[in-house]
Amino acid sequence: MAEKQAGDEHGKPKPHKYKIQIDKREYEVEEPTPTGRFLLTLAGKIPVEQFGIYLRLQGQQAERIMLDQTVDLRGEGIERFVTLPLDQTEG
Asked: How many CB atoms lie within 10 A of CB 4?
């Protein structure tokens, strides 16, 4: 017999939450592949076109995430991001 998955009062499975960190502040999101636009909005960086968001990878240079580019959060650990205002000539 299959094990019953934990769910809400209506029997629907609870959505998985992914822990992320943006500018040293922690967030939990349900979307496993959020866009750069979503992450900037979540962090309150509005208008999003005036900011860049970067994925910080251990021991590597930070990788810029474009507004419509997705990031896969389904790996192990907490994904860490930093934001920076863009110069008028960037973006």
From this structure: 7
